[in-house]
Amino acid sequence: MAPLSTTSFPAEAVPQAPEDPLFGLMRAYKADTSPNKVDLGIGAYRDNNGKPWVLPVVKKADDLIRSDPDLNHEYLPIAGLASFTSKAAELSLGASSAALGEKRVASVQTISGTGAVHLGALFLAKFYKVDGANRTVYVSNPTWANHNQIFTNVGLPIATYPYFDRATKGLDINGMLKALADAPERSIILLHACAHNPTGVDPSPEQWRDIAEVIKAKKHFPFFDTAYQGFASGDLDRDASAIRYFVKEGSELVIAQSFSKNLGLYGERAGAFHYVAAPASDATDTTTRVASQLAILQRSEISNPPIYGAKVAATVLNDPALFAEWQENLRTMSGRIITMREALRSKLEEYGTPGTWKHITDQIGMFSFTGLTEAQVAKLRSDFHVYMTKNGRISMAGLNTSNVEYFAKAVDNVVRGTQ
Known about the structure:
By secondary structure, the protein is α/β, with parallel strands linked by helices. It folds into 2 domains: 21-54 and 335-417, Alpha-Beta Complex (Aspartate Aminotransferase, domain 1), CATH 3.90.1150; 63-322, 3-Layer(aba) Sandwich (Aspartate Aminotransferase, domain 2), CATH 3.40.640.10. Helix content is 45%, strand content 13%. The chain has helices at residues 21-31, 56-66, 82-93, 98-101, 112-127, 145-153, 173-182, 205-217, 236-239, 241-248, 283-301, 308-318, 320-351, 359-362, 374-384, 404-417; strands at 38-39, 105-111, 137-141, 158-162, 164-165, 170-171, 188-192, 221-226, 253-258, 270-276, 367-369, 386-387, 393-395. The strands form 4 sheets. A 7-stranded mixed sheet has the order 2-10-9-8-7-3-4. A two-stranded parallel ribbon has the order 1-12.
């Protein structure tokens, strides 16, 4: 007779967790034996043959690092590789940023963008206690699903502000501005710097100014997540313009920065977290104190960040010739995505697919919010072996000249069949 369970973690205390939807989608795609299957869930760049693309500039950086006679695998400092974090800050803020010149920036290397968001969340959970602070984090509706888990895991409550307008498949700027104005003063506002995930809908420069004005008037605390700089438009400066505007206007803010997409360093987990103090007589002292506490948090969580991806990024960021080549690589990636947007929209309009499809080319970056319903997504999967998230988001990187027509025909068929 088997003994009764003696675990300290019975099912009522530790229920079986559901499978992560994206990883479940990947598993189902791999198990599908159809020769026509299409993976539009993957959040990574693919070339026109559907293969992972190692950036040519990254290959050159690899060669330089491997041939360095002083290469070793010693620990990095707690705050990371300085030649990486300093240039990462310049990339986000601009080399001539007054914040950098006035030493109002504290930077810490992180486990990519996810680790940067987590470190920022942990810092705010522990230290955002100024009089009148509202510790609720306002995120866009919708947002990257992991945002919700990261903030709630450290005890910060989540609220949402309107973002995606399903009628126009664009930005609900009026709803967003009203929600930010109605939120309690000194709330934490999470903002996607560019290539909003999952919608691909970004505010215009004028709309960013309106957003900044409301946030400043309500004394909110901006938290920027920047995962696609340079990958979104092909222009590093354009994709950082929202962050730079907020800093220019004197905002105190934090930035979670990833190099997974724009350098293709997905598995190397190269990222950075930056705190930017507002201009003030005590700004340098504030920055020094914040940096000291970030180091303590980092020490207790990962002790030291990983070195290799940071070395690759630092090699590219610090060499003018490699940096210029990287910009070309970024234009290659973003250009292919733009071409696929144009091709998909053109095919849907050519077929006369019911609805309007202008939003496919209006949106930017890796993802597009198609407007397809959950039922239509399910039918695309069951009838056409097309895999995408149930909210209708597709990864444009999964499309290529070999499958874009097949996908467009499948969408046309499903939309007509569910009208």
